[in-house]
Amino acid sequence: MAAQLPIPVYTSLDQAMPDLQTAAEQAVRYNNLVEEFEKRFGHKPSYIARAPGRVNLIGEHIDYVLFGCFPAAVERDILIACGPSLATASTGTGGVQAHNLNPKYQPQNFVPMLKTGGITAAEEAGAASTVHAKAAWQLDIDKRELRWESYVKAGYYGVLNRFFSAASGTQEHPVPVDLLFTGSVPSGSGLSSSAAMVVASTLAFLTVNNKLEGVSKGQLVEMAMENEKRVGVNSGGLDQAASVICTPHSAIFVNFYPKLSAEPIPLPTPRTIPRAIFVCANSLVVSDKAVTAKFHYNLRVVETLVAARVLGRLLNLPLTPTERPTLRVILTRWLGTPEADLEKEDVKSAIERFLPEIEKLRPAREGREPGEEGVTMKEMIELSGLSEEQFNQVYLSWVEVEAEYFQLYKRTRHVFTEALRVLEFREVCVRAQATEGDLPEETLKQLGALLDASHESCSTLCESSCPEVDELTRLAKAAGAYGSRITGAGWGGCTVSLVAEDRVEEFIAKIKEGYAPYRELSDEKLRDAIFATKPSSGAFVLKLDA
Predict the structure, then answer these.
(1) Where is the Galactokinase N-terminal domain (predicted)?
(2) How does pLDDT run across 497-507, given as a tens digit for each residue?
(3) Nearest CA to 396 among 384, 407, 410?
(4) Least buried of 129, 141, 328, 476, by fewest C-beta within 10 Å?
(5) Is the Cβ–Cβ distance between 105 and 85 less than 8 Å?
């Protein structure tokens, strides 16, 4: 399985890139990063850690309820030149000097502190004193005011506490590290720049500390998921899985239940008609998932979790007061079949049979105005069957959310219909791969229709779109896209459209003409805002000559 494979470590770009042309194009960027690192830190880097952004082709806001998704890594990425620091006097034990080629992001120095029984290791009598069993590494991350280095610190957390704590059975200390970042994933665009930052940072700290050996792709995904929670985002793992596990020319079907697994699925390419590729278009509405989490992303997480409990009670399924089942778990209990015995086709059939049960969540609308079709906090607690104290402990003690009405029915309907679309999308791609001879254009139209239906659900049921993104999808269809949808956490960010390759230039020109925010952009900024992309390889490490 792809998730069990080791993280690739290459010694040349020729090995790392899908073809020699791409390697030659990227060599300029990599060489520039190495040269700038040496200028800033006075020595050459030992490695370059790379993690790509991702485009989620279909399957939005369902990973955190443990349904499968269908992402692909994009060619745009985060690169970190890294190596042990020579400035140990100024950095201290495990200290970090982090610089960024983008002048917008100022250099940052920070030192992790090992808390031992209420005091730091540095405050103890000796730096090499025994680490107490309750010791844990600490880094200051202000979730109310996230900065670029917050994601670097988040990536460091998991490495520190997994490999340098008492629980790991070692008394080693992390080495001081120099880091130089560069990136081509637009921030806040829905292409998971934050996940790419955390994955690349985690990978860099693992590599410089000689802890990468034995770490599988799946383990790196799990570490990065936990690390990103340090910046206040309760990620389901989709972004990290795509950034780590993807392979060139393929998307991956990522499944999260009963455990993480990833299946590479080659995307269909017609043989006698123009090849279709994906075009990402940035709405230029910046969506900072961490900053707006309590109104948007984390709120959707809580709504779906509470909906699972309420639906379980309505279906008379076994529930304990302290558990927090997901909708995926509720489906399995309703089936009464061990998850290990289910094939993907069985899950698809089960969802189709389960859809009528969702109507039990539909709230009464009598006397309510439009927009008030959800339930209040008080009503939600009553529906859960828990006391207010129990409810707060299970659903609110670990996350901050804010809403007047909680849309349990809408979110649940989105989850199950979107999960169904993901499985149908996968089926179409698998059938296309097995087809001999000419591939009919009808296949691309089928995929496009699924993209369109997904966007409609994201807009009306998940309510994770925004007017600008809705406008971009309409313009994309008018410009000839087979289908178009929002991609990423939402409330801004990007769309992804399936477009015939020989019509990409014409397609982009029409979008530029129709979408007002694009009209005043320079050619360079327009290339950053809307671009065609092919599925890319996942995270890797490039080992440099000493």
Answers:
(1) 35-84
(2) 999 888 999 99
(3) 384
(4) 129
(5) no
Cβ density class 201-229: b for 16+ within 10 Å, e for less: bbbbbbbbbebbeebbbbbbbbbbbbbbb
Q: Taking Cα atoms as reference points, which of 170, 205, 177 lies closest to residue 93? A: 177
Q: What's the residue count for the chain?
A: 546
List the beta bridge partners of residue 115: 120, 136
Closest listed residue to residue 250, CA positions, set 18, 440, 77:
18
Map 357-394 to HEC letters. HHHHHCCCCCCCCCCCCCECHHHHHHHHCCCHHHHHHH
pLDDT reading at 289 higher than 80: no
Contact 3, 218 (CB under 8 A): yes
Residue that the structure tokens 């349990």 belong to: 408
**What residue has token string 């639906």?**
311
Tokens of 21: 């042309």
Domains and CATH numbers, the chain: 2-119+133-265+536-543 (3.30.230.10)
Distance CA 524, CA 250 (A): 28
**pLDDT band, residue 270 (cuts 50/70/90):** low
Quick check: 151 and 163 in contact, CB under 8 A? no
What is the SS3 assignment for 250-303? Answer: EEEEEECCCCCEEEEEECCCCCCCCCEEEEEEECCCCCCCCCCCCCCHHHHHHH
Torsion of CA 68, 72, 78, 81, to 10 degrees: 90
Beta strand 483-487 with 530-533 is: unpaired
Residue with token string 């890797």: 540
Cα–chain center distance at 498:
21
- 88 pLDDT tier (thresholds 50, 70, 90): low
Which is nearest to 78 in space by CA: 195, 247, 219, 156? Answer: 195
Residue 169 has a pLDDT of 64
